[in-house]
Specification:
The chain is an alpha+beta fold and 197 residues long. The protein has two domains: 51 residues; 131 residues, Immunoglobulins (Immunoglobulin-like, Sandwich). It has two helices and ten strands; from the N terminus they run αβββββββαβββ. It has an eight-stranded antiparallel β-barrel. A two-stranded antiparallel ribbon has the order 3-6. A hairpin with a 3-residue loop joins β8 and β9. 19% of the residues are buried.
Length: 197
């Protein structure tokens, strides 16, 4: 009987040792999970910063899409009507802030000769978002001057007929739009002017 208490104390010691080992194992597991959680938080933060880089301020980009055209006839044709163009102006805000425009003017030309004018309505664009604005451009004259129509017809046969669209909205932009290719988006180029007095 004297041996029983000794075995009992060994069992109790082994049990205590296992509990300590289990506690140490849980501490290590909790530490490991905490480290994984911190790493996950850092990765999510870095990805968010990369996606919404506060230093990634880019200019607003413009492009124009010809949706429809009518009145592309010689002014000497008996059924001549005013040239008119349906356009979509695509505005892509690359800035790190919202932009608001009071609208602007649009001019459609061919070989430098004005064909139609339109007014771009006021619009807003959220940070890093894009909008599309519909613009109708029309002329008050009938048809296209005969010499210009002849040149346009020749260019169309060669497949090189391009309208030039000028935008005056937060600057001056020009876009070359294929006359015979509807629903083709053409990117615009910004022009800078230096004022001298």
């Amino acid at each position: 009987m004297a041996c029983m208490p000794e075995e009992s104390s060994q069992t109790a010691g082994t049990s205590m040792s296992r509990k300590e080992d289990l506690k140490d194992g849980l501490k290590i597991l909790c530490s490991f999970l905490l480290i994984l959680l911190v790493i996950y938080g850092i990765v999510v933060s870095v990805v968010d910063i990369v996606k919404h880089n506060p230093f990634d301020d880019r200019p607003t980009m413009y492009s124009v899409e010809l949706v429809g055209a009518k009145g592309i006839r010689s002014a000497l044709d008996p059924g001549a009507e005013s040239p008119a163009f349906k356009l979509l102006v695509h505005v892509d805000n690359g800035h790190i802030y919202d932009v608001m425009y009071d609208g602007g003017d649009l001019l459609v030309t061919y070989a430098g000769i004005p064909l139609a004018r339109g007014r771009i309505p006021a619009f807003d664009v959220d940070t890093k978002k894009a909008v599309t604005v519909a613009v109708d451009a029309a002329s008050y004259g009938l048809g296209i001057p005969e010499d210009l129509f002849d040149r346009m017809s020749e260019d169309r046969r060669s497949g090189v007929a391009q309208l030039q669209v000028e935008l005056w909205v937060a600057g001056f932009f020009t876009c070359n739009v294929d006359l015979d290719t509807e629903h083709h988006v053409s990117h615009c180029h910004r022009h800078n002017f230096i004022s001298s007095s």
